[in-house]
From TrEMBL:
Biological source species: Rhodobium orientis
Transmembrane keyword on record: yes
Protein name: ABC transmembrane type-1 domain-containing protein
Matching Gene3D superfamilies: MetI-like (1.10.3720.10)
Keyword RNA-binding among UniProt keywords: no
Topology in the lipid bilayer: Multi-pass membrane protein
Amino acid sequence: MSTNPSSSGTPMRFLTKNLSLPVIVTWLIYVFLLVPSLVVIPISFGTSNELVFPPQDWGLDLYRRALDPAEGWLAAAGRSMVLGILATTIALLMGVPAAYGLSRSRFPGQKALTFMLMSPIFAPTIVVALALYLYFATLGMTGTMAALAMSHAVVITPFILVTTLSGLKHLDRNIENAAMVMGATRLQIFFHVVLPALKGSVLTGGLFAFLLSFDEVIVSWFIARSDQPTLPVKMYSSIQWEISPVLSAISTFLVAITVVGSVVAAFISSAETDGI
């Protein structure tokens, strides 16, 4: 029987060529980070009143309990959804114009202002949460949705700033100069030229900001009312007193939201890159 020398050992050569040590290490780290999150998915389809892996019996009992209004999970999820939308809207209104101003202007103290806007990323979250709590307590606003939304906006605005600045770096300034030559004001250029061109970056940043707000625990723990918790706060509180298997169903829901959001953000970013 004859063999084709050119095809002999092709899979091995392919693996040797493409699976370098950095690639292998990267995939191992990715699996290490991802697997713990995926373990809750099969647990969520069990019927036991305890966390059992793998489940002995399969069913949707835990999802029925999670969707039961009496359990309070739906109300907490709705609260987190509204909060995420409000916080993301505020962050977009602050972050996008700030990024445009920092990118297109030069003024004294610009680096200090940039660092101040980015500081919520560098500072420990619990320090930021305590500072926000003291601030809103002075104003008598703790426990209100307005205080929660503004607090979350402080935390997620830097991510809007980063994605918008990245998009502005790839934006051809000649387009803005041409609009200015045609008599457009800086405000008109921003709304009619820059924003349409940054649509992908703004949507990507807004999506990630929403996911971060939806998942935020520490800031919500300090600011929210104890009888009106967000979904992550309710989950954390539940873990303190008992480890209910319903948490696996809620966690699966959060994993699904994160995966879908990440895929959509990657698609938007890829489409914008291809369009450049």
